[in-house]
Amino acid sequence: MQTTEQSKTLAKNYNAVKENIKKACEQAGRSQEEVTLLAVSKTKPVDMLMDVYHAGARDFGENKVQELVDKIPQLPSDIRWHLIGHLQRNKVKYIVDKVYLIHSVDSLRLAEEISREAVKKQVEVNILIEVNVAQEESKFGTTTEETEKLVRDISFLPGVHIKGLMTIAPFVEDPEENRIYFRKLRQLAVDIGNKNIDNVSMSILSMGMTGDYTVAVQEGSAIVRVGTGIFGERDYSKTI
Ligand SMILES: *Cc1c(COP(=O)(O)O)cnc(C)c1O
Predict the structure, then answer these.
(1) Which atom of ligand 1 is nearest to the CA of 209?
(2) Taking all residues of the chain, what is their mean pLDDT, rounded to a whole number?
(3) Burial letters for 95-119: b for 16+ Cβ neighbours within 10 Å, e otherwise?
(4) How far, in Å, from the CA of 142 to the mean position of ligand 1?
(5) 89 CA to middle of ligand 1, Å?
(6) Maximum Cα–Cα distance for the chain, whole Å?
(7) CB of 71 closer than 6 angstroms to any ligand 1 atom
(8) Please, which residues have CB within 8 angstroms of residue 1's CB and are 6 or more apart in sequence?
(9) What pTM did the predictor assign?
(10) Which residue has the least CA distance to atom 5 on ligand 1?
(11) What domains appear along the chain, each with residue ranges and CATH number?
């Protein structure tokens, strides 16, 4: 009984977010296919992920390596797993051959470790560079000014491919306040893309969360990372 209620609610939420993305695409003259809805499932139990999977989701995002590694074998193998949280170098080896995209690379040292493990395991790893466009002290990410140099340095590493940029915008009441940061990230991607650096693509912008994803889509986002809007509030007091 309860599971049915839960799966209905989750499907309804998922479809509502999809619908909002569609509308934002229409407003911006974009095609809906250009935007991937990443279901951010951190702290949520496997049965809830399964419900969202049945609603149509195939891209799931986690921010902790341990949780990601625990969940992967319990869910269908056609899921694309994204690591969206801060990654420590000593954990790279656990996920490098399991993830579709790492959104949160912000240092050469981390990229070097990913490269080392990629070569060792003979896999090619796609990454995004996390940029702290809003210059918030509490956030990870490289600065706007340092991004191009970091991209160039990483571009030489074997087994690692930069596919674009990611940002976490500030927590705001009015999503319009974040439009400027989404624009900045997009402009930065355009500028770096114009340099035609070997082994570097700037085609993916990962930006927009529950509070601001429609604005992010209007500003060119390719991946929106939505947790609360699909799964509901997170309860960090419970360990899973
Ligand atoms: C948790 C998280 C999200 C999703 O946040 P919501 O506000 O719940 O949509 C998106 N991106 C990152 C990096 C996160 O850690």
Answers:
(1) 9
(2) 96
(3) bbeebebbbbbbbeebbbbbbbbbb
(4) 18
(5) 21
(6) 57
(7) no
(8) none
(9) 0.96
(10) 227
(11) 3-231 (3.20.20.10)
Q: What percent of the chain has pLDDT over 90?
A: 95
Q: Of all atoms in ligand 1, which is nearest to the CA of residue 213?
A: 9
Enter the tokens of residue 1: 């009984």
Ligand 1 pocket: which of 225, 226, 234 to mutate (most atoms <8 Å of CB)? 225
Task: Render pLDDT for 194-213 as a digit per residue (tens, 0 to 9).
Answer: 999 999 999 999 999 999 99
pLDDT confidence of residue 1: 42
Q: Report the share of the chain in percent with pLDDT over 70.
A: 98
Going through the chain in order, the beta strands assigned E by DSSP cover 36-40, 59-62, 80-83, 101-105, 125-130, 160-166, 200-206, 223-226
Q: Does the beta carbon of 175 sit less than 6 angstroms from any atom of ligand 1? A: no
Over residues 81-93, mean pLDDT: 98
The position carrying tokens 């809830």 is: 48
With a 6 Å cutoff on the Cβ, whether 228 touches ligand 1 is yes
| Other beta carbons less than 10 A from residue 55's beta carbon | 18
